[in-house]
Write a structure and sequence with these properties.
40% of the residues lie in helices and 8% in strands. The chain has five helices and four strands. The strands form two sheets. It has a two-stranded antiparallel sheet with strand order 1-2. It has a two-stranded antiparallel ribbon with strand order 3-4. The termini are far apart.
Length: 142
Amino acid sequence: QKVEIDSFSGYKIYPSKGRLFVCGDSKVRQSDRARLSAHIRLLLNPRPSSHSSLFLQRKNPRKIAWTQVYRCMHKKGLAEEASKKRTRRTVKHQRGIVGADLAAIAACRNQTEIDRTKARQAAIARAKAERKDKESKKDKTK
């Protein structure tokens, strides 16, 4: 037995209860007339068959207080689910990249400005020396 959901109110429709409405765009809507027993029906909705009437009047179920859509939108009846779902925070990890392991990256990060200028000057001096060597070799070959 398949239990359907009322397209307007959001309540369950049990087999052999309710009506099918076929709209002009050939969508099928299900509505429940005899939804609940009389005393419970009066608690939830004072006018028991009003939801099919409201559906036919093209009322918006989000604006009608007793529908499930309205209750979900306005966070009603969620006392059992009071504890909010915890979101997992992403944990950041330091990883080495190709050509430099984590220790080398940490060493570069912890260098002072003076150390950086010294290393830069040494690299420039090395490059100049290599260029001189290449030029001297070129001159010797000619």
